[in-house]
Amino acid sequence: MHAITKRLMARPLGAPASSVTGPYSGYSLQGQSGIQVVLPEQGRVLGRATLLSPTEVWAQTELEPVLVSRERTLRIGLEVGGTTLGPFLGEARWSGAGGVTGSALGIQLVDISREQGGQILSLLEDALRQGSAAPVASPLPVQEEISSGERIQSILTAISAMANKGVLRRPGQLVRVSLERVDAEQGLLHWRSAEPDTGWGESPYELELVGYNSAYRMRLEAPVAQGECLVTPLPERLWRVRHRWHRRLPAPTGLRARFEHPLWKELGRREREVVDFSFSGLGLLVDAEDLVFPGLFLPLELESADGERISLRGEVRYVSFASRAGRRVCGLEVRPSTERDEVPWMRFVSQSLCPSTRTSETMLEPLWDLYAASGYFNLAGKTAGHFEEIRRSFIDLGTRAGALPQLFCQTVWPSERGVEASISSLKAYRHSWMLHQLGRRPGKSANAPQVPGQILRDIYVRALEHPQGDPEFRWMVSYIESTVPWVYRTHVRFAQRMQASGQSLLMDVRMMDVECNELSGVSAGNLDIGPASMGEKYLLVRELARTRPAGYVEALDFTRDRLEMWDVSRTWQGVGLERERRILVARRQGIPLAALVLELGHPGTNLFRLLDSARLFPLSPQGREAYVALLDEARRWFALRGRSAFVYLCEDDGAYAQEARLHDDPSTQPCLWIISASQIPDFLEHIQEQSLGRSPSSRAAKE
Fold first, then answer.
1. Strands 510-515 and 327-336: what pairing?
2. Phi, psi of 197 (to 5 degrees)
């Protein structure tokens, strides 16, 4: 939602009409709508209506500005097909400075009655049915053309296995279909009609299939009909259209929403059924008498079947045509009304969207067993014994994490064996969440889903969709081991595919263990090490902007206003958890050589201590000469805070590692992985493809 809309939504409800709708509301009108704005008292036609709602109308006019005063209250009518609605009171405002002939004139409607509002909305519904009107609030879909044969096959195989539905488009008719099978060897698709009596008709076919968060369109030639089935070749291209940033699912039984119309209080308090929802939106079943329209700000009180209540603020984005029963679906973009509502809203949506998963606060011992059984403790050359020191901290924090969904999402997939799989996300920086601690138990549980890969998809969906409830979320960060086949197929390949867009980053980084009691023994010589001055901090920011990609700087809070992570630290410390950043600088004769960036996280946040970390950055050509001394200073800093070890995130060749007594496993290939939050739906689509849609040949090649 753009900044103007956010500010308007923050205004008190019950204010004038101009404050209960967005900067534009209602429907955009095409020329064939035939709706004219007239001035009945002057006997003049003001011009063709180009936008209309019960709160405003815009007209394309040829009248001279002097004939319509900006200060004047107008009486206008809406004329269509020889019938005139009105008169309505309005306040005129030229769209241009001072107004010119041929300008668009915006008129704010004043004191519109409930009956008049109903007349305007009835007129607009007729225009919608004629195809001459469209909601101005509707977002444009995001499109991608896919021509890779391997990816097309992967996508369609996944859709077939998930039994997702589709439609075949013919002139004046839609036929519901499903993709029954993908024959990879023959390059054929086997389709089944859900309406066998309609027939298949003549090719070519335009089809649309539903994926995770997108629709896939294709054009298919040369079919062979086999009764209710149809066999076609694989398409040469797919067009992916994503309609929403956040996935929507059917609402749980009994979920209701109550509201009062902000324009017409006499309508009374209304209660309506919620039909679907996501972190940022929901759909309501409404009646024509509810008089809702795109752009209207609507306060909602949501109540679940078990009585939990959450207050939301919504903006109506669309209203469907009436069904045979007279009901309509009203789609709203929503967000919690207050900070108090944010936590229950995030928790409610996360659990409802992924009902097969749970948060881990009641399953921490089984979760620890999962990490041992899955081999997670053996990554980076470690053993299970290495982690016993932080076991208690991990369990203590996990017990608290369930009550802090604004900071944590520890997702588990439970079974009769304990925990089948888990992955976690946490808010590490102002605009970034970190994805970490993926584990999958070997073998198969008795209650495992029939569809392959479903468990992994479920935990990824919850861990990645959960941060979408955070209005500050812009980046997803992870430290990945690229030699793990699953991680390579999913994280690495997706980042590589998106790197040209500037929305992802894949950077080699060595994760070196540093013991606090193992000083290098090298003298610091004539170096002076101390807290960075303001000028040195600005120097560091400039160097990072020059030497690191923009995504790195933004995601890891290396901008000038977020360098010391004050906002994040306050958020964590406000709930009794440790989180801070400290910047030290090594100088020689007053000249800054290198900066040491230290970060502290609460014990137990990550089993590899990734939030207890250090980074080194040169501030001069001689910067590396200070690295060993700075790492010894980092040992002292962490030891004073009760840590026995930390992780040095090495972004260069690490030629000083032996001298500084650093330790890592040379057989590993860790990477820093960053993607934009806007790419989360695409990444989850990619997860679905890779977990389910790989051909046997590609699977064998990677594994």
1. unpaired
2. -75, -10
Three-class DSSP category at 200: coil
Look-up: residue for tokens 């019950």? 14
Q: What's the pLDDT score for residue 384? A: 61
In terms of Cβ atoms closer than 10 Å to its own Cβ (0-12, 13-18, 19+), residue 173 is exposed
The C-alpha atoms of residue 311 and residue 367 are separated, in whole angstroms, by 34
What is the rounded average pLDDT for all residues in the chain? 85
Cα separation, 278 vs 99, in Å, equals 43
666 CB-contact burial (10 Å; exposed 0-12 / middle 13-18 / buried 19+) = exposed
Judged by average pLDDT, the poorest of 134-138, 258-262, 365-369, 603-607 is 134-138
Strands (E), 320-469: 327-336, 358-359, 408-415, 418-427, 432-440
CA dihedral 265, 309, 254, 358 (to 10 degrees): 150
Asked if residues 404 and 425 have their Cβ atoms less than 8 Å apart, the reply is no
What is the mean predicted confidence (pLDDT) over 637-655? 96
316-333, pLDDT tens digit by residue?
988 887 765 678 889 998
pLDDT higher than 50, residue 701: no
Q: How far apart are CA 234 and CA 265, in angstroms?
A: 56
Q: Can you tell me the mean pLDDT for 424-429?
A: 97
Distances (CA, A) of 230 to 177, 223, 429, 648, 686: 10, 7, 52, 58, 27
659 and 628 in contact (C-beta within 8 Å)?
A: yes
Tell me the pLDDT tens digit for each residue of 444-499.
888 888 888 889 999 999 999 899 888 899 999 999 999 999 999 999 999 998 88
Orientation of helix 454-465 relative to helix 339-353, angle to 10°: 170
Query: What pLDDT, on a 0 to 100 scale, did the predictor assign at position 67?
Result: 54
pLDDT of residue 13: 30
Look up residue 354 and give its amino acid.
C
What's the per-residue H, E or C state across 634-700? HHHHHHHCCCCEEEEEECCCCCCHHHHCCECCCCCCEEEEEEEHHHHHHHHHHHHHHHHCCCHHHHH
**Listed residue (141, 247, 235) closest to 179, CA to CA:** 235
- pLDDT at residue number 23: 64
Answer whether 491's CB lies under 8 Å from 479's CB. Answer: no
The pLDDT of 109-117, averaged and rounded, is 92
Paired with 21 in beta bridges are 296
Q: For position 346, what pLDDT does the model report? A: 85
Per-residue pLDDT at 452: 81
Distance CA 410, CA 667 (A): 29
Q: Which amino acid is it at 121?
A: L
For residues 481 and 501, give the distance between their C-alpha atoms in angstroms, rounded to a whole number: 23
pLDDT computed for residue 521 by the predictor: 94
Helices (H), 404-475: 454-465
DSSP string covering 67-119: GS-TTPEEEEEEEETTEEEEEEEEEEEESSSS--TT-EEEEEEES--HHHHHH
**Is 108:18 a contact under the CB 8 Å cutoff?**
yes
Taking Cα atoms as reference points, which of 509, 503, 478 lies closest to residue 491?
Answer: 478
Q: How far, rounded to the nearest angstrom, does the alpha carbon of residue 51 sit from its chain's CA centroid?
A: 31
Q: How many residues does the chain have?
A: 703
Coil/strand/helix, residue 451? coil
Structure tokens at 197: 């009596």
147-176 confidence digits (pLDDT tens): 888 888 888 888 887 777 788 876 555 677
Query: Among 240, 690, 680, which Cα is nearest to 462's?
Result: 680
DSSP 21: B
**What was the pLDDT predicted at 7?**
28
Note the pTM of the prediction, 2 decimals: 0.74
